[in-house]
Amino acid sequence: MNIHNIAGHLNDLGDRSQTGLQFDCYPIDGEIDVLQVNIVNREELPIFVSVTDNQILCISYLWGEDEVKPDTRLSMLETMLELNIPMPLSSFAKVDDKYVVYGALSVQSSMLEVEQELSVLSDNCLEVIDELVDYLK
């Protein structure tokens, strides 16, 4: 399993996706190869996929620390903790000064499982933004 296999599979799906979503994928070469996965009509929230020896990591950036209303930050963090468990297949984290939602799969996962993870992660991002918009500037 590698990002090129995932990209080929998702790009070839077209409108035959089990999730009803269409994917547009772009490999990004670097020290660690990353796949940028755009979901058609949700391009503003790309998902970045990397593959290691034992996991497939899927991450989407939500907003930066500078976009959070300072007087609501602690309340936002508490809300994020409360949302973490009922949010299927995804968790919150912070990478540098950016808040993210991420999910991980085994490298033994099927392409259908990868597709489902990306779909759920994208749906969760939309729900999180709706739920937490009041904490943002």
Automatic annotation (TrEMBL):
Organism placement in taxonomy: Bacteria, Pseudomonadati, Pseudomonadota, Gammaproteobacteria, Alteromonadales
Source species, domain of life: Bacteria
Protein name: YjfI family protein
InterPro entries in alphabetical order: DUF2170 (IPR019231)
Matching Pfam families: DUF2170
Organism: Shewanella surugensis
